[in-house]
Amino acid sequence: MSIKSWKRRGQWLELMPGKVVTGKEDRQAAAEQWLLSELKFPEKLLHQLKATQGVQLAGDRLRLALFAVQPLGVEPRWADLDVLYEDDFCLVVHKPAGMKLHPDGGREEKVVTLDHAVASYYEINGIETSVRHVHRLDEDTTGPVLYAKNAFALAKLDEAMRLKAIDRQYVAITGGQVPSDLRKIDAPIGKDRHHKQRRRVSEGGQDAITHVDIVHVWERATLVRLKLETGRTHQIRVHLSYAGYPLVGDKLYGGRSDIIGRQALHGEVLSFNHPLTGALIEVQDPWPADFEQLAARESHSVEGQT
């Protein structure tokens, strides 16, 4: 069901479910049933809200304490943040190259991760909630990262990830001329026993499927768009290397060195259904400058086919 009418009042979300709730003798039970069946409200979260009087009926309004104050959970450390989309439930920000997504418990105490930067953004803007990223990007991959701004949004978006209902489209520049018949790479991915950071195609690995769309074939490189059916660590990098066309700049997986200084991989589009309204949200993230420059250099070399 799509919820079109809602309002935030401080820590409370107000909904108007109509006579399906207000017309019932046991309105509280009817409200809970409506939340579970129509809104697909996470059952565990509903029990938690009930235990703290976080579900209330006031006239024709159903009030839920979805925006209760919560600790950030991450130390705020400022960094310039490019916000691509934001509302009371979701935040989408651009992750630049060379920035880790989250603290890893290492000794680099002064490192600013994207989670640190989001914590700082929340603090500056008076957003009193925990920092919760929904998916991940490699340190040197650029693109949009989705954050859930309350426990309800996190539960719904985590479920969407599990059901593969969050669509991520990437753009990449590979070495060599990718043939037109390479449309899908279906090969399981596991850990590389000989290299701690690497992954590899392995029969005993987890299922992994990458869809490939060829955009331009140049003299010594190919511009491709990719969609993930699964989200394994380093999936695009491993699959393209396995196919014989490693990403430009991806030295870990056999790509040729380039002044881009990283794997030529960028998250271009992120699409998801809004956790409350169900509306389709499509967030586009423009190519970063280094990716633009690499594409321009490759396209101006001796032209291949298109």
TrEMBL record:
Protein name in the entry: Pseudouridine synthase
Residue ranges of every copy of the Pseudouridine synthase RsuA/RluA-like domain listed in the record: 91-241
Record function comment: Responsible for synthesis of pseudouridine from uracil.
Pfam family, one: PseudoU_synth_2
GO molecular function list: catalytic activity, acting on RNA; pseudouridine synthase activity; RNA binding
Keyword Signal tagged: no
Family the entry assigns: Belongs to the pseudouridine synthase RluA family.
EC class (word): isomerase
GO BP terms in the entry: enzyme-directed rRNA pseudouridine synthesis
Active site (catalytic residues): D138
Record's keyword terms, sorted: Isomerase
Catalytic activity: a uridine in RNA = a pseudouridine in RNA
EC number: 5.4.99.-
